[in-house]
Amino acid sequence: MYTQLFGHYLLNNGIIGADELHAALTALTRIKVKLGAAAIDAGYMSAEQVEEVHEIQHTIDKRFGAIAVEKGYLTDEQARSLLSRQKNSNLVLGQALIDFGFITNKQFEDALNDYKRKASLINGETEEERMENEMIGILGINDMPDKEFYADYILLFIRNLIRFLGDDFSFSGVSRNVTVSMNYACVQEITGPLSATAAIGGTEHGFVGIAARYSGEELNETDGYTKACVGELLNLQNGLFAVNMSNTKNEELGLLPQESSEKYMINIPENGICVSLSFSFGDIKIAVVKH
What we know:
Shape: globular
CATH topology of the largest domain: Chemotaxis protein chec
Largest sheet: 7 strands, antiparallel
Radius of gyration: 19 Å
Number of domains: 2
Low-confidence stretches: none
Mean pLDDT: 90
Order of helices and strands: HHHHHHHHHHEEEHHEEEE
């Protein structure tokens, strides 16, 4: 979440424009070091071990480093060392902006110092808690009646997008009390003690981009396979959410089969949320409405 939070700070404070942020985020796809690749490069893990951890992430909501430590593939010290590379994503974003000539080294230094000062830890919170609280504030979830549900769901979705699609995206809007349209979407109903409708989709480029990133294949059209890939990502998200709800709140949830739709419309009430994201491959939306 470092990239999104620092990028939002730069944009919100008028240091860069939306087009400049988009250009820099696009460049990050060429230089972003994934934790697994970093572990291989450092000689800490084999490619087979990295793949095994990636597969486990499809079934449990845990970070790469935490799983690798539990499996005995990394020590705590090695995991912290690798994580420091991800924590430097602010530096990578800043360097991209400098390389493009959007900001100077001095502007970046001043902005980074100010951001760190404003984002300092308080009351013994961890760095992860600080980032999540900052994200909740940006998305306006604190003002929602079902704050806990929406915070748990959206933060999990953002973590999954970063894990399985990449972090080259910025927030382009949050919608409530409106009807949201998506050119292409996958939709799934969550059932049980609480029920909700969840959807992910967007423009054609965005929808195909989701499928391409998730599958690791080059895809160019919205065929059945593309829709199945996006549906699988949504089902993964909701499955992990259901597991988390069972483990933390003893609430057993069910999932209906996901469906794909063109020209999909979803009514977002005041107590609902649709988050618009701009990836380098296109624009997407994630929406959830608790019934």
